[in-house]
Amino acid sequence: MTSATNGTRSYTLRIWRQSDNASPGALVEYRVEDIDAQMSFLEMLDHLNDTLERKGELPVAFESDCREGICGMCGIVIDGRPHGPVPNLTTCGLRMREFESGATITIEPFRASAFPLVRDLVVDRSSFDRVMQAGGYVSVNCGQAPEANAMPIGKDVAEAAMDSAACIGCGACVASCPNASASLFVGAKIRQFALLPQGQAERTRRARRMVAVMDQEGFGDCSNHGECEAACPKAISIENIAVLRREYLRTLVRR
Amino acid sequence: MNCADPANRYASAALMQTLPFRPWSSIGKKLLNGLTGLLLMLFIAAHLAGNLTLLVGTDAFNAYAEGLHRLGVIVPLAEIGLTALVAAHVLSAVAVYNDRRAARNVRYTMVASKGGSSKQSVFSRSMIVTGGVLLVFLVLHVWQFRFGPSIAEGYVTLLHGEPVRDLYRLVVETFQNPLWVVFYLGVMVLLGFHLRHGFWSAFQSLGLLAPHTRALAFSAGGVVALVIAAGFLLLPIWLFLSADPRAAAGVVMVVP
Amino acid sequence: MDLEIVDGDLSSGAPEGPVETRWDRHRFDLKLVNPANKRKYTVLVVGTGLAGASAASTLAELGYNVENFCIQDTPRRAHSVAAQGGINAAKNYPNDGDSVWRLFYDTIKGGDFRARESNVYRLAQLSANIIDQCVAQGVPFAREYGGTLANRSFGGAQVSRTFYARGQTGQQLLLGAYSSLMRQVDEGRVRLHARREMLDLVVVDGHAKGIITRNLVTGALERWAGDAVLLCTGGYSTVYYLSTNAVNSNATAAWRCHKRGALFANPCFMQIHPTCIPMQGRTQSKLTLMSESLRNDGRIWVPKQAGDARRPDQIPEDERDYFLERIYPAFGNLVPRDVASRAAKHVCDEGRGVGATGLAVYLDFKDAMARLGHATVEQRYSNLFEMYREITGESPYEVPMQIYPAPHYTMGGLWVDYNLQSTIPGLHVLGEANFSDHGANRLGASALMQGLCDGYFVIPYTLGNYLAGQKPGTVRTDHAAFAATEATVRGGVDKLLAIDGRRTARDFHWDLGRLLWDKVGMSRDPEGIRDTIGKIRSLREEFWQNVRVPGSGDSLNQSLEYAGRVADYLELGELIAIDALHRDESCGCHLRTDHQSAEGEPVRNDGDFSYVAAWEHSGDPGRPRLHRERLAFDNVHLAVRNYK
Known about the structure:
The complex is a heterotrimer. Chain A is an alpha+beta fold. Chain A has helices at about 40-55, 125-135, 155-165, 170-175, 185-195, 205-215, 225-230, 240-255; strands spanning about 10-15, 25-35, 75-80, 80, 105-110, 115-120, 120-125. Chain A has two domains: about 10-120, Ubiquitin-like (UB roll) (Roll), CATH 3.10.20.30; about 125-255, Alpha-helical ferredoxin (Fumarate Reductase Iron-sulfur Protein, Chain B, domain 2). Chain B has helices spanning about 25-50, 60-70, 75-105, 120-125, 125-145, 165-175, 180-205, 210-240, 245-250, and strands spanning about 155-160, 160-165. In chain B, helix 1 crosses helix 7 (about 180-205) and helix 5 (about 125-145) crosses helix 7 (about 180-205).
């Protein structure tokens, strides 16, 4: 490879360790050596865990799955920023060349009351599922679908809906929000269906129910800091939050 | 069989099948806060425009004040309306703040903004503080001028031959005191802070912004904050520097 | 190889007669469950990918009780989410000559005549319904200006039958199925159990009647009773350690069903995707797929001289070998996946590979940029180029991309009949976890089609046929079989924790992956495979003496989860090698160096190997019994694939 792949780096990691939600947690310091610039951040953590396992110590629990930025499973706060310093990227896509050798890196879990901690850097984001259960769907049974081209949808509308649908449900919006609000996540789903003809029949019920469950789950309210858009690995716009409000306001006058 | 999985909390409940619009939902609170904020901004802009008559002189300002009083029954209605606006604005803001504290039960050790398109700033993060200061100021300000010394206490002047309250004198006297000047200056800077985030944020809270209008509203918010704050900063400074000799001498001039 | 062979016991159960009407006739023959009785049946669905989520939601819509399990924190993370390219359907919207028959024909031919005609025809038939269903759910497929659905040609197909949603088709289809699933959870018809790993199947009187899961958060072993079990747990590409699959993808649930009696079919049929970012080093955890669409405009080359260490821009045009264009002038860089992969391996084996490891070829966009202009290339590929730059630190606008093949999809899986039922009655297998529709090689954009077809349109009919013959709720979790199966699982977990050796599970997984990749990967020879079988056995023995699993079983312990999956892979790996050794021919992705033409093309042996190899677990992973399901090609005539 032509770029700087050789030359090993070392880092000091301050990682949040906590055995479960009921126990106290604390930052614990680790040293990692022999880190290649091309390694992903998660591979660096794999490397740390291998070292810990060989010593018989408990590895740091963290989550990841596809490791190509689409499943939304990885997500930790790196030096105060969800998914780390690089915009439009998930943690799994982050490479160690972004961090100077010798740096101290602080790693914390996503923090929100609606995301209770499971262990170390693992949190429970099932609150998102429950919000989706409240209306994040079109009520159509399998077999009822009309011919796909029977309902034309303009290219621009489809593209705009896709912009919202691109959400990977990672929770970085909640983690980055000073208020721990889920408005971007909820707004993205509301907007996708508000734009599409398929979503019209349940528009009012969807907005009311999803907002109600979002509130019950203990997410905060949106104060328009806009941090979620910057932290979102898919750059989902806070326009979705504006639409969420508009859609909710709409339910005042429309049944 | 274990059916108590947390993922199914709402399952099969007849819960919320027919749910009303809830003004006090997370979205409702922001709609309310944004709407009241916008209306209060309109009031502030009008208030500033009126106050600028101070720069013209005694009669201009007193005429403006008296003009407002002549509106009759509209005055108490406006006062009640404004009080309600402030109350709704404050209550919704405090509720948002409380929700925020509950929504993150464990704090981060380290917090940083991602930059980029983020609108997070010292202004956005200090809304509850600047708002709190403005509320305290508001009480003081109303006590000082609305309920302050009037004709009975000798603050009277003749306008077109009629005796009216000499509010100009009260203002001028107040701003002879450097402590009042400094206090007002400080608060007006914080008003600018509040408007810097509050202006565009109100439109966003009402769901009025699309990406292109958002950029416009955000920039306009800076201009509005600057203009309003500058206008309100100008008055105490100007009054302090161009001290009116009548007030400075402490002479009570009652024209019979 | 001396094998115990059983013939004649496997039947697909598909009706005879004209292939076009087989599914219709079969549907009419299937027994139905009375609508009022459906709620009395409980179906356990394991997995929430395209197959699992679509099956769980559709069965719930019909009125069955569904218990749905996944290992992730939410169903929406299943690895179907990562599919980029698209989904095929014989809609013929572009009016370019597509038809159900053509999709059927292409799939059979693409699978190199090792798939079952009845299943493939049904898949092609139902493909159009899938698109209708997904559109109704609000999946934002790409559209034309007039508002109709857009199509593209994909993976070398000569018609444009691929529907797509940017480069995130799998994600959007999965979110569609997930949304239907969430609706059924809200209705109370589906109960969702996330962070559960299925560790065994409970078989009562020969029928699948339950599963044992481990709650990954509390460590508790849990018993679940049901009237049928649906296994929708995906493929096993991660047996190679480095693959394009998610790091949690695994074969444990399928393998444990295999050990309970389900036959495992064609395990050596493994698709290698040609355009992946090459391996960088020992610490790498996965290989990232770059969309196949890059081959539409990029030109693949290596230096003519072995060992040429010059930078690509210093190698003059006449010293470059555009090997795909040279060998396959008709299709050039667009030859099917297996052909492109093998050619890349071949030139690297000659020492002409590039990059730090010598295991890469160039994918060059210089000519495309000259021909189309920088702007057009940027418009077509900017997302992919950006992704490549993020990973490698190099910009494909300036230097050629480096690519290399990587394990991507497993055509093999648990054997199922026409009803998607395994050899254990009641255990049905859907999606990539079964073997059924892709033969020896899968066409691009067909995996999503199969997963959704199984879940939305096949199992809702065929499961009813099974359940109609079963009395509902006969087995409860206090049955002795549950206690015995749970004890087996507990024994396995305790055994792993007790070894306390010196090497991590990852070390063993890495070693297994390298063994398989080297000798049972893109090309295979009998000597190498035999040698590998011996090495896998030794590795397995070492594993059970020397693996170290820290922590305990009573809480979240990712090391323990992983070790269990690696233990199963050490057995499955051997079966893959045995299958590759026994299949004494080349076909599709299975290239045996002792069965290739002078030009290096695979040479099938239809006389001896036109069958599905379904393996039965005998208790000893090294001595499986072979069952053969003969394949008949009545509609598509056996022919040699030729892309020259």
